[in-house]
Design a protein that fits this description.
2 helices; 3 strands; single chain
Length: 146
C-alpha cells in the first residue's frame, strides 16, 4: 500500500477531503472493543472461496470473501441498515471520525491465505466513490505481501 501525506498531521484529513489522492492511510481507526467485536463476527460468519473482485476482467483468480451487506457494484443506496450491531457500530465510528457524511454502499471482508495472491483493481464504478480498506491483522510481515 502506498502512503501519501498531504498535511502536517494526516490524521486531521477526512475522507471527503481526498479528491486528488489515490491512497490515504489512517492508523488505529477503530477502538479495540469495536475491533474485537468485528473480528469475532467475521470468524463466526465464516468465509467462502472463489470471490472475484472484478468479474468484468479477464483475471481468473478468486479469493476468500464474507459479505455483510448485499449490494451490486451499481448500488448507490446506503446499506448500513443491513449491518449487524457490531458492524454498524464500526461503521458509525468510521463515519463520525474520518468519513463524515459518507454513505456505505457495500460492506464485505476479503481474505488472502498463503498462495492466494491479490491483484490491483479498482472497486469504484462512479466518480466520487471511495474504497475504505481496514486491515484486521494483529500481526503482519512485509514479506507476506498485501
Amino acid at each position: 500500500m502506498a502512503e501519501v501525506a498531504t498535511a502536517k498531521d494526516p490524521a486531521t484529513l477526512k475522507c471527503n477531503q481526498i479528491n486528488t489522492m489515490e491512497y490515504q492511510t489512517f492508523s488505529d481507526v477503530l477502538p479495540l472493543d469495536i475491533l474485537a467485536a468485528v473480528e469475532n463476527e467475521i470468524s463466526e460468519q465464516g468465509w467462502s472461496y472463489g470471490w472475484r473482485s472484478r468479474t468484468d476482467s479477464n483475471i481468473p483468480y478468486g479469493h476468500w470473501n464474507s459479505s455483510f451487506a448485499v449490494a451490486s457494484k451499481e448500488n448507490g443506496l446506503d446499506v448500513s441498515p443491513q449491518l449487524s450491531n457490531n458492524l454498524l457500530a464500526a461503521w458509525k465510528h468510521i463515519e463520525s471520525t474520518i468519513c463524515p457524511g459518507a454513505r456505505l454502499i457495500r460492506c464485505y471482508a476479503n481474505g488472502h491465505t498463503y498462495g492466494v495472491e491479490g491483484y490491483p483493481h479498482k472497486d469504484a464504478v462512479r466518480n466520487g466513490e471511495k474504497t475504505l480498506v481496514i486491515y484486521l491483522n494483529k500481526i503482519w510481515k512485509r514479506d507476506w505481501g498485501g
